[in-house]
Amino acid sequence: MIREALLGIGIAVVIFLAVLGVNILPLLFLAAVAGTLWLLMDRRQVVPAGIRDNQMQHRVSFDEIGGQETAKRELMEALDFLRYRDRIKALGIRPLKGILLTGPPGTGKTLMAKAAATYTDSVFLAASGSEFVEMYVGVGAQRVRDLFRRARALAKRENKDSAIIFIDEIDVVGARRGQHSHQEYDQTLNQLLTEMDGMSTTQSPFILVIAATNRPDMLDPALLRPGRFDRQIRVDLPDKEGRLHILRILTKGKPLAEGVDLEHIARETYGFSGAQLEALVNEAAIIALRQGEQEITQTMFRDAVDKVLMGERTGRKPTEEELQRVAVHELGHAIISELMRPGTVSHITIAPRGKALGFVRQIPEHDRYLYTLEQLQQQINVALAGCLAEELHYGNRSTGAQNDFMQASQLARTIVTCGLSRIGIVDEEHLPESVLDAEVRHILAEQEKITRELLRPYARAIEAFAQRVVEQESIGGDEFRRWLRSVRTDGQAAPALEPACP
Ligand code: ADP
Ligand code: MG
Ligand code: ZN
């Protein structure tokens, strides 16, 4: 403020002198030198590096976290302990010292901890379990002490009366004691427990520890005792509505082309975490940049989904013959997928990405948590259809179906262990491996026969369309469905194809 005032007066004086006809050039030069020095001095008003960083971070609010309504609500409720500390104290309620966020990576646990700090107007410090683990005994414990000390100092400096310490990957230090050969972990954990036990309501600043892990089952029971991490909040993968919500948040302010259907993208991204959705939106924007476009289109999102799912396109260059075979194989998957659940093929792509040479992307109807026997069998049919299409078309199979077989076996195992097979209800733990194997093989053999018969009528028509898939590299679901409807399944020669669109 003083600086602005002085600057204003300075300028006024200079103008005044100029009006009087005084030569102001030397003055201007002096002013420039003084200004530069001033700026340099200002830069050096140092705050210790690590601490400053924490405060420079963008403050996250709960509104920026999508699709975690339950977790958010539970967390906010828990945080009211902090917000209304006086009332808690008056009633003599034991304060909440630790909250454990559990769930897969990338679901927003770190975001939640940051939002918690904003919500409670606390300072925020973060550390990761792996940072405490060192070669030298005692270092981890020392770092834990440091962390709590820094939290107190920072709160004081910022004039806040609470601090949130976030410890990511708590399982690295918090696994059951005595399990590792390394004494170091135990000491670190003990120190953390000591710090937490020492905290009390009367203490200012009040410190709340929020920890995150994907393996709550691994944690030392001592961590979960009352007065420590006695509140657990599950942060799961988002469902479709959640994904849509996250996509809306992530694309806010980004130039989306007309016709971009976030709902459709949410449907297609079953199993994606928030972090994967973030990567997807970022990828789509990069594709737009590469293509010199101003807006992000639906196709760019589609390609970005492929990339996030399957990895970057690899430099591998399969031969023409291999490409044709891959196309036949993928069409096998696509045909059965479409016969089982019409409208579910999103697109078929022949482009080496990650480990795959090609793939069919399906649109899940909706997120599923339960499967019937029939649905599991259908999935086995889809998985087996790739190699069976090759067999019907070429008379032999290739090595390209390894992954499909693994998937099919896994599904068959699920049928058996869930008591949906011929042998009825089983106790998974006491089921002899040989019995399980025999039943899995029986299921696969049966489904193989069924799938082959479903595919047979299409075997002749596949060739021409496979050629088109190879030429275009990627074929959308609608074009595929048009072709599928045009195929005569009465064993007659396949009709001529409509000309391929460019
Ligand atoms: P975690 O700590 O569970 O591994 P993070 O909070 O570190 O996950 O998430 C990483 C990034 O992914 C975030 O910075 C954000 O961009 C995005 N993200 C994850 N989950 C969500 C969500 N629920 N809503 C919005 N963005 C999310
Ligand atoms: Mg994280
Ligand atoms: Zn396959």
Overview features:
binds zinc ion, disordered C terminus, 55% helix, Helicase, Ruva Protein, domain 3, alpha/beta, Rossmann fold, binds magnesium ion, 4 domains, 19 helices, 8 strands, 502 residues, five-stranded parallel β-sheet, three-stranded antiparallel β-sheet, binds adenosine-5'-diphosphate
Radius of gyration: 31 Å
Mean pLDDT: 84
The top level CATH class name of the largest domain: Alpha Beta
The CATH topology of the largest domain turns out to be Rossmann fold
Basic shape: globular
| Poorly predicted segments | 39-56, 493-502
Gross CATH architecture of the largest domain:
3-Layer(aba) Sandwich
Total E-strand runs: 8
The percent range for strand residues is 5-15%
Cα end-to-end separation: 64 Å
What is the tally of helical segments? 19
Helix-strand pattern, N to C?
Answer: HHHHHEHEHEHHEEHHHHHEEHHHHEH
The class by helix and strand makeup works out as alpha/beta
Q: What small molecules are bound in this structure? A: adenosine-5'-diphosphate, magnesium ion, zinc ion
Please estimate the helix content.
40-55%
- Strand arrangement, largest sheet? 2-3-4-1-5
What is the assigned CATH homologous superfamily of the largest domain?
P-loop containing nucleotide triphosphate hydrolases
Model description:
The protein has 502 residues and is α/β, with parallel strands linked by helices. It folds into four domains: 45 residues; 183 residues, 3-Layer(aba) Sandwich (Rossmann fold); 71 residues, Helicase, Ruva Protein, domain 3 (Orthogonal Bundle), CATH 1.10.8; 178 residues, Methane Monooxygenase Hydroxylase, Chain G, domain 1 (Up-down Bundle), CATH 1.20.58.760. Helices cover 55% and strands 9% of the residues. It has 19 helices and eight strands. The longest helix is centred in the C-terminal third of the chain and has 23 residues. It binds adenosine-5'-diphosphate (ADP), magnesium ion and zinc ion. Zinc ion binds next to α14. The site of zinc ion has 5 residues, from α14.
